[in-house]
Structure formats: C-alpha cells, structure tokens
Design goal:
Number of domains: 2
Structural class: mainly alpha
Helix content: over 70%
Low-confidence stretches: none
Largest sheet: none
Mean pLDDT: 84
Radius of gyration: 28 Å
CATH class of the largest domain: Mainly Alpha
Shape: globular
C-alpha cells in the first residue's frame, strides 16, 4: 500500500510539472502567434494577470499589490514580444522557456531573496513579525559590517575562517592536481590492464560522496581505524620512529582539519586524473617523436610539450576544483560531527551553515553568503584572466 501511495505521489508530481509546462507553453505561444493583432495587448493585460491572481487567491497566497505587479510584468512581456521578438524564432524560444523559467525560480529568485534578506534583519526575534506582516526591519549595510567584525560562531572570527579556507582550498587543489597528473601520466603509457586500473582509481569519485566520506571517516577511528593500526604496527617494528612520535593519533579530535583534507584529497584526485588523462590522450604522438629525434629527455618533453598542451584542459578543471573545494561542506559536515561539531575544522561555508541553522542568524547568514559568493567570483575571474593571458602569450 505504501509503495502504491509513493507511486501515486510521484505520478501526481509528474502530471503537475507537465501541466505547468503545458500552461507555460500555451502562454508564450499566444504571444508568438498573435503579437501583431490589434487586440493582442488588451487581451493579454486583461486575461493573464487576472487568471494568475485568481489562482494565487484560490491558493490563499495572494497579497495586496500582487495584481499590480502581475500587470506590470505582463506589460513588459507584451512589449518584448511585439517590438523585439516579433514572432521570430518561436520554436527555439518555446524549447528554451521551460528551462529558463525553472532556472529563474530555482536560482535567480532565491539569490534575489538572499540579497533582500542581507539588507534586513531576520532572526528568531523578528521572524513572527515577518510572518504576520510580511515586513522586516531595514538595517542597510549593518549585516555586512557584522560579517567582518563579529564571529559567525563562538570561537573563530571571519578572518581566521578566511585564512583557513584559503589554506584548505590551496592544499586540496594542489594535491588534486599533483596526484591526478601523476596517475594520468602513468595511465597514459602502454601498460597491461589499463582499463582495470582506471576503473579502480575512479571509484572514490564515482561512488556517492556520503558513502565514501563515512567509509574513510571510519579508517581514521582512534582505536579500530586502519590508519592508526598501520601507524601502531610501524611504531612496533621501528622503535626509533615511536621515539619520534610516530604512532596512533586521535585524528578526529586533535587534527580534524588535517583529517578532512586527507579525505578530500583522496576523493578529488580521480576527477583530476580523468580530466588530465583526456588532455594527454589528445596530444599527438608526433610531437614526442620529433622530440626523441632531437634527443630531448623525459623531463624536457614534459616541460615543453606535455604541460603547455594540457594547460587548456587543466585550467578550467582547476577553476572548477577551486570553487567546489571552497564550497565543500560535505566532507567537513560528515567528518566533524555534523551541525554542532568542532569549530577547529570549520571553513567559511560550514560556519555559514552553522550561523544559519544552528544559531538562526538568517539575515547575517545571507550577507555572509553574498560575501562568499563575491570571493568565489573574484577567484574564478582571476583564474580565467590568467588562463586567457597565458593563451595570448603563446
């Protein structure tokens, strides 16, 4: 019975989405088909805002001023179709519109709402006022000032988190590229069972990240973890290493950030390996044949042929890896004890999560998120600018 109920729920959701897409396509088909009719604007302004407003009213979510906003939006759409589109490229637009509207609802609207929250004051003491009246106290740039001057948590400041995040990102991406490049060079050679090795190495990245992280977290357990067992065996076999401090370690409590870094490096190397291997396989062997004739060594071929030709593939991958690592809350969240874990391993995004959902500082967290977005945007633009400059030099 429960299975049938789940099937009905999924089928109902699919039908709802299909109905929404059909209504959306019909709405825009009207604008493409009748854009040149004399009654086009009047019919659109009279019918569509009224129908949408009635739908919101039936759902109990209509608010004062909504009808005026709908009329203004419809007027802009009518003007756009009459004077800009003029019925051209209707098929292309109709195919793109559902995806565009979906992205606008899932990405653009939440981002704009987050910007709105960052200039207001939403927290536990004001949330009921917002629920009842729909208004929030306007505080201007106060939330942004607090991001840089107050701690999002209880022990660390924004600047400490920023430094820790930059160290976390650089160390992870560095070892991702170094390990991925080394493995890609090995797999690019003519070796037996190459496909088997490639499949084996890509497993950490291919499996669900939650499973991989929790599995690796168990390997760093203080008593029964594989890492500590190996360290204990090494200390027993070589007593002088034990005298230097080599032995079992309380990884999760004493070195939480290092533990997260090791696990994330293990997870990220396969992605870089696959990307770099694809770039290596696209390099023509004629370059290496010519270098062999000229007597070039392996490292000379690596420096003057492999690295320059694989760079166009590597730079976008490094940019993506930087953004992913900078925003990677999954590893820290799962390794350090979820929402209320230690602050010794927190980076900007994990501190942002705790500020929003543990300390309920919603507007502060919105401003925090905008600052993090600005940092990532700056880093990405800098990477891409350096990549373009390198291409121009060549």
């Amino acid at each position: 019975m429960e299975i049938l109920r789940s099937v009905y729920e999924v089928a109902g959701f699919i039908l709802l989405i299909a109905l929404g897409v059909a209504l959306l396509e019909g709405y825009f088909y009207y604008h493409f088909k009748f854009h040149d009719r004399p009654w086009f604007a009047w019919a659109g302004l009279a019918a569509f805002p009224l129908l949408v407003w009635l739908g919101f009213t039936a759902g109990g979510i209509a608010k004062p001023g909504l009808f005026a906003w709908l009329v203004a939006i419809e007027a802009a759409v009518l003007a756009f179709f009459r004077y800009a589109v003029k019925g051209r490229h209707s098929l292309a637009y109709l195919l793109l519109i559902p995806a565009f509207v979906g992205l606008a609802l899932l990405l653009v609207y939440p981002f704009l709402f987050e910007v709105y929250l960052s200039f207001h004051d939403l927290k536990l003491t004001t949330i009921m006022t917002w629920k009842n009246t729909g208004t929030l106290p306007f505080v201007g740039l106060d939330q942004y000032v607090k991001v840089f001057t107050t701690s999002p948590l209880s022990e660390v400041t924004f600047w400490q988190l920023l430094g820790r995040t930059l160290l976390w990102t650089f160390s992870n991406v560095f070892f991702h590229v170094l390990g991925g490049f080394a493995l890609a060079l090995l797999l690019n050679n003519a070796i037996s069972f190459k496909g088997f090795y490639r499949t084996l190495l890509v497993i950490p990245w291919a499996m669900p990240q939650v499973v991989a992280v929790l599995a690796m977290r168990g390997e760093f357990h203080s008593q029964n973890g594989f890492v500590n067992i190996i360290l204990g065996k090494i200390a027993e076999a070589y007593p002088f290493l034990a005298g230097l401090g080599v032995g079992p370690v309380q990884w999760l409590s004493d070195y939480p950030l290092l533990t997260c870094t090791i696990i994330n490096v293990w997870l990220g190397i396969p992605f870089m390996m696959v990307v770099i291997l694809g770039g290596l396989q696209s390099i023509s062997t004629s370059y290496y044949d010519a270098a062999d004739i000229d007597g070039a060594s392996y490292f000379q071929k690596l420096r003057y042929i492999t690295l320059p030709l694989v760079k166009p593939v590597l730079m976008p991958a490094v940019t993506l890896g930087t953004v992913w690592t900078f925003n990677n809350i999954n590893v820290i969240y799962l390794v350090t004890g979820q929402a209320g874990g230690t602050e010794q391993a927190d980076i900007l995004v994990s501190a942002l999560y705790k500020a929003a959902f543990t300390y309920n500082r919603y507007s502060y967290s919105a401003a925090f998120a905008i600052v993090v977005f600005a940092l990532l945007f700056f880093i990405s633009v800098t990477y891409l600018h350096g990549f373009d400059a390198a291409k121009d030099e060549r």
